[in-house]
Amino acid sequence: MAGKGGLQSYTVQEAQNSSMGQVGSVFLDTAGTTFTPSDGIIVAITMITDCNFDVLTAEDSTKYISVGGTGHNSGGDTLANTDNFPAGMTIYGRWSSVSINSAGSCICYIG
Asked: What is the pTM of this model?
């Protein structure tokens, strides 16, 4: 899919694949390092070890969870930077930046 020159030039299947994280990924294991994709958005996060987030910035905080936010139309509880996500868990959404808090590691998928 590299070098296509914009989403409009992708086939339907290629565009669907890119929205599922096939644009790229990044591994985070250092507390305080904030990752913000230069192109695209984070669409999934898989926890490699137990971790919690110092920064989890939703593209739209009324729809997606974020640190200090509740997600879908305020229907949930507020996510704190001490809330733990266990190893092996994958969360899906649309985030513009991520930073792990204290120990932990994760892989962020870009879509």
From this structure: 0.80
